[in-house]
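Lab channel / #folding
Pinned by the channel admin:
"Please post every new chain as: sequence first, then the structure tokens as a reply. Keep commentary short and put observations after the output so the thread stays searchable."

First post following the new format, from NK:
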Amino acid sequence: MTSARSRSDAPQVVILGGGFAGLYAAKALRAAPVCVTVVDRRNHHLFQPMLYQVATAALNPADIASPIRSVLRNQKNTDVLLAEAESVDTGARRVRLSDGTTLAYDYLLVGTGARHSYFGRDEWEALAPGLKSLEDALQIRRRVLLAFERAERETDPVRRHAYLTFIIVGGGPTGVEMAGAVAEIRRYALRRDFRHIDPGEATVMLLEGGPRLLTSYPPSLSDEAKKDLRRLGVEVRTETLVTDIRPGCVSAGGWTIPTQTVIWAAGNSASPLLRSLDAPLDRSGRALVEPDCTIPGHPEVFVLGDAAAYEHQEGGTLPGICPVAIQMGQYAAATIEGDLAGRARRAFRYWDRGQLAVVGRGQAVADIWKLHFSGLLAWLIWIFVHIFFLIGFRNRLLVMIQWAWSYLTYGRGARLITEDLHPPAAAFPEPAPPRASLPSAGVAAGAP
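Reply from TO:
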């Protein structure tokens, strides 16, 4: 059979982004009579829901990432480009890349994802990294491990305590998972590794500006997640807005907390590429799409996943989670095939299979259809679902083995600091401020 690549008149489908939406769209088009070009500035597909496992030394980067070329190597109608898209000319139907070259398209699928948002305080990023890429995860892993190493050598008790204070900002799934994982590191994995400090005495603090954690979950599961975190020794503070982050301290709720390790999990901002589409955007910079996931006036341009604000289904805007992106990618591919076959388009409908968030070892919360439960069963379901969505059998097998080993031994096998040591990026202010406790939960902070 003649492949789509060999047909000079085959429609050109350009996919920007090798995330869940882009990759699943490309895979769904493997037998379509089109030429597909996947463009990504990274050469790998990343399973973002498990990034916190890399950031907390439970998994290695290669366990949750697969080369895009390897995933699509058997698709004869597909090219993969390692490049960064700079802008889109929807009138000329061309994508401009950062190296000055352009790509023509008949259909464009934009799945460029999102980055963390600091709500206008971008200077905080250097002090409080977010968690969206492997580079972010490795940076956080390095900061967490170095904090314990520097505390081991610090003789001043106030500074040592600041090194052993870990602040996670944001009470969504990423913040909850990070807080639980860091608490487990200090309680189990590092318990017997140091001679001059007790890692178990480290403070892990989760700050959330809203009234409860996991706001997309039912209130009962939010309460259960808070209880589980507190059993792990995490100090959970809701209605506590962070108003400032400076070298050596965080200001929140009118209090100053000395710390050298801050992790940001409080917000997302869509890719700036979307601004070149001349489409309406929401407050987070996501494109407001039509019922068929296209932008107004351009039925050939699909915006998918975290880049899309889909408001045509009951329950409000669809969340930026991987099941939504996967279904959008598959829908866009089916819609393109339907166009070529002369079929009328149908609106996209997301099938909500539920949501899961892990809190700690053997603890998770599950919101699946009308069932709300927590504990070991939710954790086992979380493991199965996340391993199922990992790309490649090798990744699934390795993750399963490492998780089983970590579960039995409380170990963290990826505790490597790979960069040269140099002075901390955030030096303590002089004199070092005394540690201040936050007010009790429920005291609202002022607006930043």
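NK: Confidence is low (pLDDT under 50) at residues 1-7, 424-448.
TO: also worth noting, The domain at 122-266+354-409 is CATH 3.50.50.100 (FAD/NAD(P)-binding domain).
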